Amino acid sequence: MGKEPLTKDRKEKTQPYYHLGAVTETERVLNKRLLDKITDPKTAAKLIENGMTVATSGFTPSGYPKEIPLALASRIKNDCEFSINLFTGASVGKELDSSLTKKNSISRRFPYQTNKEIRDKINQRRIHYEDIHLSQFTQEVRYGYFGNIDVAIIEAVKITPEGYIIPTTSVGATPTFCHLADNIIVEINTTKPLFLEGIHDIYLPNDPPDREPIPIMTPKDKIGTPYIKIDPNKIKAIVFSDKQDENIPFAPANQVSQDIAYHLISFLKKEVLQGRLPENLLPIQSGVGEVANAILKGLLDSPFKNLTLYSEVIQDSVLDLLDHRTIDFASSTSLTLSKEGFNKLYNNINKYKDQIVLRSQEISNHPEIIRRLGSIAINTAIEADIFGNVNSTNIMGTQMVNGIGGSGDFARNSSLSIFTTPSIAKDGHISTIVPMVSHVDHTEHDVKVIVTEQGLADLRGLSPIEKAESIIENCAHPSFKPQLRKYLTNGTKQVGHTPHILENALDWHINFLKSGSMKD
Amino acid sequence: MGKEPLTKDRKEKTQPYYHLGAVTETERVLNKRLLDKITDPKTAAKLIENGMTVATSGFTPSGYPKEIPLALASRIKNDCEFSINLFTGASVGKELDSSLTKKNSISRRFPYQTNKEIRDKINQRRIHYEDIHLSQFTQEVRYGYFGNIDVAIIEAVKITPEGYIIPTTSVGATPTFCHLADNIIVEINTTKPLFLEGIHDIYLPNDPPDREPIPIMTPKDKIGTPYIKIDPNKIKAIVFSDKQDENIPFAPANQVSQDIAYHLISFLKKEVLQGRLPENLLPIQSGVGEVANAILKGLLDSPFKNLTLYSEVIQDSVLDLLDHRTIDFASSTSLTLSKEGFNKLYNNINKYKDQIVLRSQEISNHPEIIRRLGSIAINTAIEADIFGNVNSTNIMGTQMVNGIGGSGDFARNSSLSIFTTPSIAKDGHISTIVPMVSHVDHTEHDVKVIVTEQGLADLRGLSPIEKAESIIENCAHPSFKPQLRKYLTNGTKQVGHTPHILENALDWHINFLKSGSMKD
């Protein structure tokens, strides 16, 4: 596989079209030796050959490369003539996942995605997808579990005089990819301001047996460097991009989400009253989306103050919480903001830089830190069963939605792991509370609280039969309660700690697949 | 609830029968003020009242109290007149679990058991049992998730001049129970030698938000004290016991176990050759039982040297490994030895004290340490499914066997999580490799390798369909392979990342329950 420097044949004396002029270049590429590596996306993409493993920046579509993957995709003429293994931090935008999927050019894709085109191909089993805990993924890449990384494509704000990389709006798995890749292509995004420098905290742990404690004691502790240290000789190409990240549309809170938030916040207040949580709680992890937004919005209207966030994403509502000092500090691996959110961030960057840090996903989601901080993990379920198991990835046990992401990292090491879901879906034809989930991502051992718009089930210290009673009575939708009670009553006619009737355990899903409804 | 000192009515001038003479007493109870608390089991047991929560020492039946629970049980005349919540470290012996279960006197029992009588009652749902990760249990007790602890009963080697406790052959959850309990009863076991002092390393972490890194960098690091620091005023009674722990019968390795061990050790050798593991591997965790014994025996005959163990139990074979320097050091929370094993330990205690440390289960099983060390976790499955999910607790999805124990603590934070199981059970009527497990304790995300006597499936980096092919071809018993292939082939006629046919997913279990065989 050709590894010769990409730019060696570039002989032009005059600057070709892709140069942006001396000012931009010299303020973005501060290492003079690397100026020679600036090239166009098409040329840079030639570094990527058939059969390679390519790893990119990007987390929950933020900070992923765009020009190189688009150039690569446009190079591929025919189906099946070309394929790569594609590793990312987490989900990336359509310029990467869609463009390559449309050319059937992804063979293997780890560890998380949220893209329609790629999801369809995953469910057709035309792309091999392993759904991996985000904190584990990077260490497993380093352990060599997934082979060599040929090329890393990294979106950057700039390259320092030493040749180090300042990432953009996410860190994700980038430090590990840069550390391991044979070659690095840097995509400098000129829409991402230079003043982002300083918001990142890059720390690459040693691997066993030489690993040491990670010295984070509070979400605001910085333990690393503001840049990703690399061997500058590995940078084989630099391109400029002015493409913006795919924006996640802002999800306004509906009544169901607000009710979920109400039950959850009431519960947290009670925990404080009973002395089980400090007044400013413990560091919160919360996902993205409607319910997460409603919860964060709910916190804004609550009496809680001086909270902290130790999470993997920062969405718009976090900025509001920081403004109101409901939250003092937010640690994350990604800024997943709307266009308005980014404008707000950039217009007040000096303030927010004191309140926000972006870490690698290995650290933002690290079991050691989550356990130490005693995190409160709030994640969404696709469905939960009456015994407290949660499915968060596979609809009807078979159809991959996105992946487990960081939910397992947080749920299994937190002090309090909470799952939220509306009690029904598909116009009431699906109950998200079922006798047996069709796929398990979070076991009964890792689920402490389930919340729907109907209410909240506190499962701590309960046996399976007590969990079932609590979940049915507190969380299930009234239209499905009789059916759930009947299942449980039938089960309890037999001996068994977890009184399932295996013949009927998956009937609800089977009925839905046949008739379009889980109703009897 | 009466909390007055138990011994205040003891007026005798002459020593009653339960005193063991000045020598034994003064070498075992070094705090002079506590000598007055020495009493008989019956009197001490009066501290335990109906409705209380009682927490005891003991882990994988080692170091649990015997005299007090027997005295308590003999006091209970009628069914249902008396019941307590019983918390332990892990499994305890029949003197505790059986004697109280026979009197229907346990209302709630956390977090693990291996006792026939109690298991039966759990499956009849007459005892509320929550199956909790062992490392999480103690912190959740401290967080107040399970209410107040009225009395702790702790087996000890001795009480120090300061009134602190030297535990016996396990540490388990004892430090936390002592820290929290209103009252403590100490059961000094005179069959456990005084020279055990010094083998324990007691460290009680702060709770969030004040938690700090746990400074263990290698299995041999000692970070605490050799005693459990308590307020001596909480000791309300001291009794003497010469009862031995219930012995676990030694499980000799049969051919199936040896074959599993062979595949596993071959795999580890290959990992070293390929540079994915150091020559002396990474700290090993291994359970108890036939397969675990065979694996440890296999290591003895292997070229591996200078290994370490960071585990929750030490069984007989570990002593042999230490003798041969196959293993340099073993960290655990419990000595689960046969009578011969204990004799060997005691006869060479000075040597073994340099090679063994006993920690609390919170530390032996701590996510932070397991992740830092990069542990190799080897645990047993009841059944595994073709997509890599593991059931380790509930037979046919309903009947509790023991519990998850520490397997989740290790599997989900290790660098390499391996599950072993013979490929068939019940004279070949049960396949332990099934289309869908009937209960999930370890998800596909946490299972990297499955080993049976047939072979080994390395699941790292595989998509569900690839995992299924690998597990069927490498791990399933030949008599079940055609049936498994048929299930998978039918599944792949449909779209779906995890190609289950829900109508048939649990048929194998249903068939077994109906006909006594999983065969078509």
From TrEMBL, chains A, B:
Catalytic residues in the record: E312
Classification via InterPro entries: AcetylCoA_hyd_C, AcetylCoA_hyd_C_sf, ActCoA_hydro, ActCoA_hydro_N, NagB/RpiA_transferase-like, Succinate_CoA_transferase
Residue span, Acetyl-CoA hydrolase/transferase N-terminal domain: 33-239
Keyword hit for Amino-acid biosynthesis: no
Keywords attached to this entry: Hydrolase
Hydrolase as UniProt keyword: yes
One BP annotation, GO: acetyl-CoA metabolic process
Database matches in Gene3D superfamilies: Acetyl-CoA hydrolase/transferase C-terminal domain, Glutaconate Coenzyme A-transferase
Domain Acetyl-CoA hydrolase/transferase C-terminal: 341-487
Chain positions recorded as CoA binding sites: G287, V288, G289, E290, V291, I382, N402, G406, K426
Domain of life: Bacteria
GO-annotated molecular function: acetate CoA-transferase activity; acetyl-CoA hydrolase activity
UniProt-listed Pfam families: AcetylCoA_hyd_C, AcetylCoA_hydro
Family stated for the protein in its record: Belongs to the acetyl-CoA hydrolase/transferase family.
Protein's UniProt name: Acetyl-CoA hydrolase
